[in-house]
Amino acid sequence: MSEFDYDLFTIGAGSGGVRASRLVAQTGARVAVAEEHKPGGTCVVRGCVPKKLFVYASEFEEEFKDAAAFGWNVGETSFNWSTLRDSVQAEVNRLAHIYERNLKLAGAELIKDRAIITGPNTVHLVNENRDVTAKKILVATGGWPFFPEQVVGIERAVSSNEMFELENLPERLVVVGGGYIAVEFACIMNGLGVDVTLLYRGAEVLRGFDLDLRALARRQMEAKGIKVMIEADVKCIEKNDDDFTVILKSEQEISCDLVLYATGRRPNTAGLGLETAGVELDDHGAIKVNKYSGTSCDTIFAIGDVTDRMALTPVAIREGICFAETEFMDNPMTMDYSDIATAVFTQPPIGTVGCSEKDAIAQGHEVDIYKSSFRSMKHGFADREETSFMKLVVDAKTDKVLGAHIMGHEAGEMIQMLGIAVKMGATKAQIDATVAVHPTAAEEMVTMREKYEAPEVEVDHTGKQAQPKL
């Protein structure tokens, strides 16, 4: 009989925690998973999955308009928010149930309770008011929306968590932020008929992405009717009788019915009791880990958004696999964080993998740049003014593709496949040798031959940006 109740106790039933726990349980180890909310974590419950369903819903308005060019008479259309909201929540609940079922089928125990670490091998279950012991503890509690405390009236704003369950759709929405969540929700709500203003304190949205993509993303958002205000820093949020007023530090005022703050997420470590076991955190509350997801406490490990690494669902899943292989299958395995493809579901969406042009140059590469800007066949036929864009960043000396960047219909699907080539170290010559699939938008990626000589457009001190020649 073991001296511990469990071989592994996982805190958090999100994508990473569930994958690790299932794999470990399948080895015959005794595994328990504590989750105080629904199984599924940020991605399934309040992130990727419901957001993508909202994206689908928000695209129909333009699809209805395009249909006329193809001979369809759609007739009068209308949108019902409560139908979408309730249907999405029903799907979330279905998926959460599947997560729970899969844990049980693997042999893991799901404990619906809040768990707090009380020692290197001890966890306290709050609602059940009991302690359990485990040989190893895995923390996979993800991230949580961050609200800047210095903004007066910040308590009047909502986070992306609440956007999925709003009682009513606002007529006017202010979105604060310029990252994934901010630009995606701005596009979603605009597509559902909401008057959207996006406020970002930086010089351009989507910091960290290739500059050409960033510039084009903002132009496309503005073309679709979203008011994008850069270098706009919020001073306070005032509540009126029937609406809100967002006051900027420039003293400009914006009236709205709802304020969404999407200025980032922080690791969800508050109140977990990590300090009792000597687990070190960084300045943002992230758990410090080594390449095997080990913390400063030998018996406690951490994966996913709660750590100081890359905050993406597929990354958390891969980290969970590496943890299980290393700690329970005698097969040390580490995560490779290079050339990870990702997508941003703006409208049109963005797909990117590898280095931006700026980052490639900063790393010392001499680069060749290839670009293509065009209207897709479908949008051209429907006379919709929507630009598709593709870009390759290539090492001029080795011909290796360092980065690939796409904006356009199904960019997320394209970048997944292109990510394989970039990960394998494909050269521009190998991409050129690939026969195009015609007629597709993706064929542009294998038919770009002419180097683009002009440098990227830089943002000046005013935050204003010239239109790049794409």
Structure in words:
With 470 residues, the chain is an alpha/beta fold. The protein has three domains: 6-145 and 266-328, FAD/NAD(P)-binding domain (3-Layer(bba) Sandwich); 154-263, FAD/NAD(P)-binding domain (3-Layer(bba) Sandwich), CATH 3.50.50; 342-446, Enolase-like, domain 1, CATH 3.30.390.30. Helix content is 29%, strand content 23%. It contains 13 helices and 21 strands. The protein has helices at 15-25, 41-46, 48-58, 60-67, 81-106, 160-163, 180-191, 211-223, 313-328, 357-362, 377-381, 411-423, 428-432; strands at residues 6-11, 31-34, 109-111, 115-119, 122-125, 130-139, 143-145, 172-176, 195-200, 227-230, 234-239, 244-248, 253-256, 258-261, 265-267, 300-302, 342-344, 350-354, 367-374, 388-395, 401-407. The strands form five sheets. Strands 1, 2, 3, 4, 5, 6 and 16 form a seven-stranded mixed beta sheet that branches. A five-stranded antiparallel beta sheet has the order 17-18-21-20-19, sandwiched between helices. Strand 5 and strand 6 form a beta hairpin. Helix 3 (48-58) runs parallel beside helix 7 (180-191). The radius of gyration is 24 Å and the shape is globular.
Distance from first to last alpha carbon: 68 Å
- The fraction of residues assigned to DSSP E strands is 15-25%
The third-level CATH topology of the largest domain is FAD/NAD(P)-binding domain
Return residue spans where pLDDT drops below 50 for at least 5 consecutive residues.
458-470
The CATH class name of the largest domain reads: Alpha Beta
Average pLDDT works out at 95
Number of domains: 3
Percent helix among the residues? Answer: 25-40%
User: What is the overall number of helices?
Assistant: 13
Structure classification: alpha/beta
CATH H-level name of the largest domain... which superfamily?
A: FAD/NAD(P)-binding domain
